[in-house]
Design brief:
2 domains, 20 strands, OB fold (Dihydrolipoamide Acetyltransferase, E2P), about 375 residues, alpha+beta, homotetramer
Chain lengths: ~375, ~375, ~375, ~375
């Protein structure tokens, strides 16, 4: 099947050049869920682009009768971040003008839903699907105010315009997948939200991290938090309800790389997820047996970040993916000085047991820079 | 009188070089209030350095009997920001490693004071000065936890270490003055907090903006918000109390400049404030008559920011300091294109009346970049 | 008259977005000289964009019979530089990937013309116009090799591709004008080349600087140096010849600004130049009397740059445009330290007489940064 | 034996903080050659710091009778470059203020030696060591002018001050070793100069590249080129002379890394070189048999750089260290677009046979960015 390909204007630069987004829409023969997948929101996190390209290649080979619902794909979704360079590196994690993390800028309806209890009360007796549509209408009405502001003389800063453009494509999605990787060097894993652990296994990855603490305004959070809030509100009011709305961030390996293993895991997991969810309906599809899928789950509240306690060079560090015990040596700092002393080697030991799931690519550190992350 | 000059270690860099802070402490013969003044927290905002230097020069000429209490001065308080360059410019508003605004990183006790109501109840019958000391002790105990974390193997990111160093010098101050300027081009004005309007006049500036909305974790906010919260809590419990604790941010003109007029206003205002507050006790001091001082007050909630609605070049813009009416033309965008069209000129009109108190230095704009700010 | 407007592909970014150049070609009814004018090669130097827009507006009002030859206009000629930001500033003087000055990257045929003497000998008896065409053919044949390299699998770095695109539009021009300004703050002046002093006056500016020393590979240099070399070679061989080929760099005021005065001087000077050169043929054109035009000429070899001899803040600096005498005080450095000393004020005196024609916008300096420039 | 450790003031920053160099001087009991070794001139090239630290550790274990001459060690020799960050990366290859490559700034006496023929003629009959001392005196006299300029009111830009500081420590050295690595990912290899191929083998590396083409003003070049020029001048005048003066740049693996293998090769090679040169005189030293040492030599003129011919993502690239033949596929570009087309995959083939000795770390490329380097 062939996609509809739409090019969406994003930003006019000072030079008059224009940046755009491009969305590949595969529309199935039967109506169904809307899946939204994007990649490269952070400039250095490119692995997802290969995943999307392979997904396009795959979808081109199936018939529209094999697709129930629709799949929207947005590779290289952040031109400002993707194209930025500092020397030969890709530092595009942040908007350099506003110093905002490109993944902490999104509009979260939950923060504006002052009347959530009233809304929920009004929906208590209604069918889940009706509630979903009513809530979605409410979200969209509020969301439309942003466009009014964008079109006013005072406008909005670019990060808010950009967030609007991306969110306008997915605000009515059912399943949202944001393809990231580490800026540094990391294992492959999945971020998921509460009560979505069963679906998490469909991605066939070894590790999953529950987002139980929030930085705020990330793409996946902004999408699902209003629905989690609504579910919680129903629960308080005595009705158990869970919407079939899911948001995922896949972390596929290391920054500035499209490591073939990580890409392969990404494409395998997504295809299986779409199959399990009934979006892909292909009789001969090689079904992964996720009942036996071993996945280790933890939570973002159990992440420990290690920052360099002195300036210097990192050596003898444990490998990414290692399991460590409290008091194991994690790394050494080779610390120079300008006080006529010999260089010094400082050993750093683990405070707790855990999995070293990310290490810095850069082995030079100023005091207070990140060396590694451990999850308990 | 001579100051005590202390050099405080701040950060060891990867190269082994070290950055430091230097504090000039003028200690009066009589005990009294502690005043803390710093400058250049944002790298481009240098005007306050000249103010502090002139204040040092002035204090060197008086006797310690003319000083009641003590004045701590910390110029160039952010070496990472002050020394940063991008081409010939000073972009040091943000930590480039963490992409955090150097003035949105500070530790705010209010956010951790879970038991404020209990504390307030326990202090309801006590003398104001006793309450102040008890509360300060509480704050300091919590603050001390940060040092424990800094000294642990996992450490803390540099922004938190830096915030700790600055706040450890002023957490027990009575009056705190943070000397800023615009990154862009702006008038001279003062940010103040609720119930401190009378003291605001002592600074002899034409404009004051009440901080009734917060970005969060700014230096002045982090200092005073716990006290404002305590005052509010007392009020709810039926006791009217106001602590003689004040925080100010002076905005002294334009970025990358030490404009003599702005510097002169800064030094004049601070000296008068210190005199009015009884910190400076000099019989022959030329007392400004602030009873007649005309100061226009507004609030941060009344700030309108205008962002470029198209990429291009800004021309025919109203001057900084202008008063405008709704529907006045504010500026034009000369907008180029790459679509084989002639360049276009777009007029932008004011949505409301107000004072144009800041304009961008850069007249080239990508879509969504700041052009000017108006306060109603 | 209406221009032909052509959009020229420049660069595909990693995101798939494309940057372009746009050239406005005003073609006169009569054949004649080709004039090429561009602006904003350095990202912060935007004043020329307004000049080009006003020139377009002007040319739209005349008839093609008033134009002899053709005028090509390329505003915002360097999208990579124009659109770059560091915080709110425009640091786009350099390619950040290759760390090359965008105006030191151009292809200079003189460096490759190994057989210039042989060529000149072969042309000794020919008519000047025939020589011009023969030499231009020789230059173009060599220039065409760059395109072959661009189209090879190994390609070329972007700076060389970009240089090729700009130079391919102007390599056959007769008159070339590159519109710059200071990154910092400067007077309006003109760079010119040897034996073109008379034409320089047509620009009606107060100051002209002869480029008698070269940084190498600047846009104006790369255009005219092969012709200057040919003239010199003819002279050595005993024939005096001067081609009516001219290159100019107009410096129009300060960076990140389109100061109306500088823009007005730019447009006035260019129009008068085009009129004097016979490109504009308008009977009622208000002819400037350049016979009385007072223009002060100097040479780039007489430029003295003052670098900060200590880190600190610049104050009490002489104004841009001042004339100074040797031993006059030029500026002060307010120098802080981290060695428990009071701040220090250091006076800097002029080594020679001269005109202060540029001063740094940034009044904060690390040791060795530029403070001002004087031309003797 | 213990070194003398000297701390050398380098630069005062705007904040008043100071950067320094630190040199570890191991002085042997017997006079002899002076060896100068530095590391980390480019900010991301940190591997040499571990080499120097291990060399210090080694030298601490020997006696001063085992050292003939002296060894000066300067790790982290460029604080501005070492400490620079852009997001988590180390882009410190360039001075961001002047946009100069930190290794293309050095003072090269050859460029100023206008009277080299006259000098050589005056030395034709003298002993080699006398010539060396006379020439060194001449170089030093010229070099001293830089200090005069640094101390003048107009000063010098920082890059020239920095170059002066490093060169003042090594201008009289006999052997100079500059420890680099790739910014990207590369094999371990050695840059050497003409007529020094035999000594090159002492470093026990697999590959050596003769610097037969120059970028200009690199640290190793600036040191040795005056001596090569003198040798060439003697040769022209009929006397064969070679000074025992050598300059080397070791390239130790990949950027932002201290890969243990690369560090081990570095320390092994340097120790063997010092032993072979008679600087280390240790009876029991495990002598490498370099007569059998297989080292492949090539020349910098045989380097081919491949730049991305389109923007996109690099995949299926040959591994670093591979040998390729002409027409082998080198890599693919996964190229996205904003013109409503499917993504495209472009194959790039080798133009020549050769060794892929460097590949870009970043697999995202804007058009014209470096993908890999091959040496024939």
């Amino acid at each position: 099947m062939q996609p509809i390909i739409e090019t969406v204007f994003l930003r006019q630069m000072a030079s008059g050049d224009r940046l755009s987004l491009q969305v590949y829409k595969f529309i199935g023969a039967k109506p169904g869920k809307k899946v939204y997948i994007q990649s490269n929101l952070h400039g250095a996190e490119i692995a997802g682009n290969a995943v999307i390209q392979q997904l396009i290649d795959f979808l081109l080979t199936i018939n529209d009768t094999n697709l129930c619902g629709e799949i929207w794909l947005v590779p290289v979704c952040n031109p400002m971040g993707v194209n930025e360079r500092s020397h030969h590196f890709s530092p595009g994690r942040y908007c350099v003008y506003e110093a905002k993390d490109w993944n902490r800028i999104f509009w979260d309806y939950e923060k504006e839903a002052d009347d959530l209890v009233a809304f929920t009360k009004s929906q208590l007796q209604l069918d889940r699907e009706v509630v979903r549509l009513n809530y979605l209408t409410t979200i969209r009405e509020k969301f439309a105010k942003i466009l009014e502001k964008i079109n006013s003389p005072s406008g909005l800063p670019y990060t808010e315009q950009f967030a609007y453009k991306l969110q306008s494509m997915c605000i009515d999605a059912d399943y949202l997948i944001d393809l990231h990787s580490s800026t540094n060097q990391a294992i492959d894993y999945l971020y998921y939200f509460r009560n979505r652990q069963e679906s998490a296994k469909y991605f066939l990855l070894d590790y999953g991290i529950l987002l139980d603490t929030y930085d705020g305004d990330a793409f996946d959070e902004a999408f699902i938090k209003p629905w989690l809030a609504l579910e919680a509100c129903f629960q308080k009011l005595g009705r158990n309800i869970q919407f079939d709305i899911e948001a995922w961030t896949m972390e596929l390996g290391s920054g500035m790389q499209m490591h073939p293993d990580s890409v392969a895991k990404g494409i395998l997991g997504i295809k299986n997820y779409l199959f399990q969810k009934g979006v892909l309906q292909i009789p001969e599809f090689p079904q992964a047996n996720t009942s036996n899928q071993q996945m280790t789950f933890s939570a973002s509240s159990k992440i420990m970040k290690y920052y360099a306690i002195a300036g210097g060079m990192i050596q003898s560090r444990v490998k990414v993916g290692s399991k460590v015990n409290a008091n194991d040596r994690l790394y050494q700092i080779l610390s120079f000085n300008k006080e006529s002393q010999l260089p010094q080697t400082i050993d750093i030991f683990a405070e707790n047991d855990g999995l070293v799931y990310e290490i810095s690519t850069n082995q030079a550190v100023n005091q207070g820079e990140l060396v590694l992350r451990i999850i308990q």
